[in-house]
Amino acid sequence: MVNQAFEQSYKKIRKEASIKGFRPNKAPLEMLRKMYAPHAMQQATQDLATSSYENALKDSNVRPIGDPQFNIESSAQEDAAFSFSVSCDFFPELKPIDLKTIKLGKPATKLDSKRVTDILESLKKNATEYIPISEERSTKEGDVVKIDFEGMDENKESIAGTKGADYSLELGAKHFIPGFEENLTGVPCPGEKTFDVTFPEDYNHKPLAGKKVSFKVTLKEISEKKIPELNDELAAKFGYKNFADCNEQIETLVLKQQNDEVQAQLEKSAIDAAINSTSIPLPTKTKEKTVENIKADRKKQLLSQSKTEDEINKILEDTTSNISQESEVILKTSIIVSFLSQSNGIKITAEDIEAELVSQAQQNNMPLEDLKKQYSSDQINQLAFVLTQKKVAKLIIDSCTLTEEKSN
């Protein structure tokens, strides 16, 4: 087996190597041994360890969870025995679960009129026109003013990140820091005003957090908002036949969203119920690795929010318990989904993956091939797990006692 691994390594090297005086794939083996022995040794060692581990799994009834840790004290050598050790956590053995004993409740779906109203209001907002006024007057809340502004420190020097030109700002919308819009309300336009404001202590740009800044603002123009009415004319602008058609389609969309949310919550409840119906021991090393992964993801998120290293460490320390609980949920979900899918013959096929990708491409209005390029092999594996989880949840829901709650 060892010599065969080396033979395969040299065959691969021979195909890829460019050796002067020899055509591709024609260099003699002895020359390859002299020139590429370390590389062949490394490749053969890796192949031997991986194939031996995979064969050992096939010959046993255990299933690994997480990545194996190989301990190779010395590389493989031709004409010599090769030994190594590998450590890995395995899926625990679980007792059979009688899914018929699980009880779940499914909330009734009642159209959320507020969501419909919010969408209609967003259409009005998107169709709102801003009409510049010719008269000179003082600004008032609700005006959209075009301004130039610049922030300066106590030495009257410009501060980076506090300068803008021809910026449109709606007074009273609270898009700027507290005090800025208020200082521009009731000011003659055209005109200028200089005033001080202090940035919030938790401002996301750290150099400005808690800093007192003197702003010089030039008001150049006032525009008044012309908000359209909800009528057939507005509906036509967004491609609807009339307002009745617009309202009906939005209601249908909202109801579908609510049904999808109820279904997602029901699927989660089904998995949680299965987890709670049995005892699931957690592999120690895999749990530790899961905690590390969660912390790494959390740290990446906090860094994107401009948090300092000390702030990040403090947040991670304060949330240690929550992270530990999160890791347990992730692991138990993985174990129960694996157990129920295997014991009930649930599998995800290439056709299942393809169908999901087609659906996602349609939802995102993008070519299927472009979407596929965004998926790495690890992400495809993750997608397969998500689809497996949905099938397992359906199995539980179809098998359990399901009570559909009445709407109020």
Description:
The mean pLDDT is 92. The chain starts with a helix and ends with a strand. It folds into three domains: 2-90, Alpha-Beta Plaits; 129-226, Chitinase A, domain 3, CATH 3.10.50; 235-404, Orthogonal Bundle (Trigger factor, domain 2), CATH 1.10.3120.10. α7 packs across α9. Strands 4, 6, 7, 9 and 10 form a five-stranded antiparallel beta sheet that branches. Strands 1-2 form a two-stranded antiparallel sheet. The chain has twelve helices and eleven strands. By secondary structure, it is an alpha+beta fold.
CATH topology tier name of the largest domain: Trigger factor, domain 2
Helix and strand content put the structural class at alpha+beta
Q: How do the SSEs run, as a string of H and E? A: HHEEEHEEEEHEEEHHHHHHHHE
N-C termini distance: 71 Å
Q: What is the residue-averaged pLDDT?
A: 92
How would you concisely characterize the structure shown here?
The protein is α+β, with helices and mostly antiparallel strands. The protein contains twelve helices and eleven strands.
Keywords:
408 residues, alpha+beta, Alpha-Beta Plaits, Chitinase A, domain 3, Trigger factor, domain 2, 3 domains, five-stranded antiparallel β-sheet, two-stranded antiparallel sheet, 12 helices, 49% helix
